[in-house]
Amino acid sequence: MRREKPALLSGQALKLKWVGAAVGIIVALASVVVWFTWPQETTLTDILLESGYYENIPPTTLSGPGTINTVEFLSNGKVALHPTCDVTPELLVGKVQKSETIGRDLKQVLEKELSVSGDVREKLQAAADISQISSIHLKLENTKVLLVTDETLLVARDALLKGRCQDAVELNVSNGGLVCQTRAVLEADVLYEIEYNDKVAIGEHAQLTAEVAGKLNLDASEGSTNRVSGRQLFYGVKLASNPILGSSASDQPQKCLKTPLFIWSLKKRYWRKLQ
User: Fold this and answer.
1) Which residues neighbour 94 within 8 Å (Cβ) at sequence distance 6 or greater?
2) Taking the model in full, what pTM does it have?
3) How far, in Å, CA of 188 to CA of 146, rounded?
């Protein structure tokens, strides 16, 4: 039997075919958007990255604006700052600007209950009877931005880079370290609130809370058996973009801002989705 050639698609059928393909693409793109923006457990690291800060691990009162530090970039946009040069208090007197206005949206988010990061969980794993804690949340209060101008950064650099400070910079750079100045920090008081399992006797709460405080290098709050607090700690940090170079630095030195922070934020979201 003679086979008939398939008829060409009519104009209307061809149009419907293209419309169907377009709808499929739109649905696929919408799925990707929802996948990335679906509400997730919010951590302090996420909020700081989206606001232009690296999370400082551990939070301390050291390495403030103008200081020179060797920077260790940790996973997921966190940094550890290792003081490289001694800074006399007189050098930055009257130069550090303090602002209690950090943005209403950011302040509202920071002063809500947040989930603790993996670093905190790891520290608590070694605590005695830590399995008796059902949950722990953190809240930042009295948040402020401390910063210095570009002029002050240059004045501090010129004043410090001599003698033993220069030797310390040379030593770190020769060993592959990245030496940077701190431009700004996000200072806050921290409050950890702990909820214990029902099986834990009320009389044991204070002892367990003291153990948690010891692991976090903080203080158990007076008058409370389930709160741990710290005052005026630097949680977020911004670095000057240009590093401090040694005499044998390469022609293309590293930047203190290794990866745009919004990319770190996307990478964190993507990684958590895969876990």
Assistant:
1) none
2) 0.70
3) 11
